[in-house]
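Progress narrative, Year 2. Work on Alanine/ornithine racemase family PLP-dependent enzyme from Fulvivirga lutea advanced from sequence curation to structure prediction during this period.
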Amino acid sequence: MAFLELHKSRLKHNHKFLTKLFSERNIEWGVVTKLLCGNRAYIKEILNLGITEIHDSRISNLQIVKSMNPDVQTVYIKPPAKRSIQRIIQFADVSFNSEYSTIKMLSEEAVKQGKLHKIIIMIEMGDLREGVLGENVIDFYSRIFELPGIKIVGLGTNLNCLHGVMPSQDKLIQLSLYKQLIEAKFEREIPWVSGGTSVTIPLLLKNMRPMGINHFRVGEILYFGLNLFTMKTVKGMKDDIFKLHAEIIELHEKPKVPIGELAENPSGEVLEINEADYGKTSYRAIIDIGLLDISPEFLIPDDKKIEITGASSDMLVIDLGKTRRNYKVGDLISFKLRYMGALSILNSNYIEKKIVD
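Result:
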């Protein structure tokens, strides 16, 4: 049976790295836990780090956080659905918003529940996901800043999440200027400019972050230590907090080329054959994970000589070449994961989740 490990010591190492990075620059930050898909054991490990602010895109996950530690500030990081308003107010202290009608409903529900709900106004900075257009920000703010039960605590933006638009000094300076314009016009303080995510960390490391950006929400770099500009591990961080282990359930020497007429497989793919492989054989192992659990492109084998040749719904085939390399049926093959691969595995009920060291 395949299983996923979270290595506590490595998680603590990356958290310590980021805490030092932010504290030296007087930056507030919270941890994004949506990757963990509500896994209570893994969320507990995050809370054990001393985290005081948790960000998530699923209200059920924030409900779990509140049940484990009511004092943690919870932040809902996508525009709320109208049918979720009651639960947003109940379990999220802060939410990201870009629609006036939604904020008005949040206001009404906050008054009903006797709460003050904090919001961050999301501003469109070019990636074309959520956000108010820049030219409309002043008017948008003017319509909502006096709504009862609502407190605007920040301006924010998302970059790189949809079309891959990368953060830059110019974009982040522009975001900071919106804060200054609003504060000057309305004489109201906006504490946070939340322009920092994992993709912005490289600018921080190069001291290229505009000083106005004073709040970060961080997930991917905490879990994978990845510089999203260079796609290499940040010096001083760990890239193997998560490890997937899958068992070899068959191992035989077989032809490299399928035998018979080829058509689409269940995934809609038609194999392209390398003619140089005709007549050749290799040792092929089947391991006990498949497309139901993860897409092979998000797997990074620890054994660099392993080649992933294909997958069906519940099995994945790897090519070991002309030698078995001492592998046998029952052995475990270990993998590091890319972000979207870890997300799939953590969302799978078929993969056991463990905590080590």
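The chain has two domains: 8-233, 242-356. The chain has a mean pLDDT of 94.
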